[in-house]
Amino acid sequence: MPRSTGTAVARGPDLAPQTTGxxxxxxxxxxxxxxxxxxxxxxxxxxxxxxxxxxNIYVRGxxxxxxxxxxxxxxxxxxxxxxxxRQILSLLLPGDLFSAMSPFQQSLDxxxxxxxxxxxxxxxxxxxxxKLSDAPVLLDSFMELCAxxxxxxxxxxxxxxxxxxxxxxxxLILQLMERLERRGLVHDQSFEFPLRQLQIADAVGLTPVHxxxxxxxxxxxxxxxxxxxxxxxxxxxxxxxxxGQR
Amino acid sequence: MPRSTGTAVARGPDLAPQTTGxxxxxxxxxxxxxxxxxxxxxxxxxxxxxxxxxxNIYVRGxxxxxxxxxxxxxxxxxxxxxxxxRQILSLLLPGDLFSAMSPFQQSLDxxxxxxxxxxxxxxxxxxxxxKLSDAPVLLDSFMELCAxxxxxxxxxxxxxxxxxxxxxxxxLILQLMERLERRGLVHDQSFEFPLRQLQIADAVGLTPVHxxxxxxxxxxxxxxxxxxxxxxxxxxxxxxxxxGQR
DNA sequence: CGTCACCTTGAAATTAGTCAATGGACGTGG
DNA sequence: CCACGTCCATTGACTAATTTCAAGGTGACG
Lengths: 246, 246
What we know:
By secondary structure, chain A is an alpha+beta fold. Helix content of chain A is 38%, strand content 20%.
């Protein structure tokens, strides 16, 4: 029975200092989903809310009529086992939907937790569904989103099933950089990196202790560097080689 | 670098003794997707083909205008790493689509391999898409399928990330039984089990050798029994307990 | 100044992987 | 019918990867 996940237990939902609605959805940082809406000239007036780090944004099984998008900050989908083990299913960056299929689902089968302070918007499923069945082209783009989400899950499956600790962590970092790059959040191979090692551990299926060792190794080999929450990649080719990306 | 996967390398696509088309899609064994079509009074005249065990049915990246359903036999989605490691992403039983998102995709990001002799049908994506955007209710059912597929991937993510060898294998067996039960293919807690240990290994992210040990253990503890390709569960509660299902 | 949450490190214990040899089942050709 | 080859499963001995346990150390913060 490995990996008790220590103290990172949920603190219950907490829609803290909620904020205003009414803004348009077209913000560059909204990434893929924002772009989708923009391309199709769609605009919603979503409800917005803010959640503090480490709190639940969504509780598994909770019935909801809304589809949520992260506007700002990092969050994650997480599954819990009965004995306390946790698995982070994916990290959510600005522009990511809590779930691509969510417009068609009553509830989701995982929790969503804030990693940093998170601002997110909720859009009515009924509206969304209406527009989707109206415009076949929109539906196509949307299904692309679903497919991307599924493929991402499969990518991670390969990680956990076949790769060693080093490879997993190298890939986690590399893939994060790619995703942040698309959002213009990477400068000079460095970017904000708010993950605690316990969270990395839960994401890659390792122990926090082991994550610490591997991270030290990557640091001491001069591959990466972390300073006050900023991760900088010092040797991209070597990191890629470790990650098995040719 | 763990887990070279031995000799189970692909033998190239092979649409062997192909057969006739023209039958209606409404067969009980078609499971979820068949039911979907039936409920919505849809019928296609899909092309049918047969593939021998161990052969590729679909090669990653291959452009296709068709969505395929397994009609008979077992298949699997598999991903390959450059160094030969393999990960079985999911097992496909009769009624399963190669990919739920496939009607909207040009190509898929994994291989599909036959495990037993497989008969499958291919349906034109354009037809399917047309019907889907015609009938919102149908779209809903369809999205349910997508969601189920994604959730399944997440379930397996939890397995590989958090569970020990015993648990993974116990769950593999249990979940297979559930799926086969829905298709009426389980009698008296026993069902056909065509998986080689190498395939189990690739599915649960372990070595064939270790799979052998764990299977022996399950057998010697009187939990399961395998005879000439038939697996029988002898102690369901205990197997469930190992699998962490309460 | 104490607490808390997090990271680091060492040593020992476990789990799973590797290597290598053996044996059974099955099919094929002589 | 037998010899041979192939594919799988099994087992033992050994090694490697990762976890567990435990003890310190740091920095933020009230």
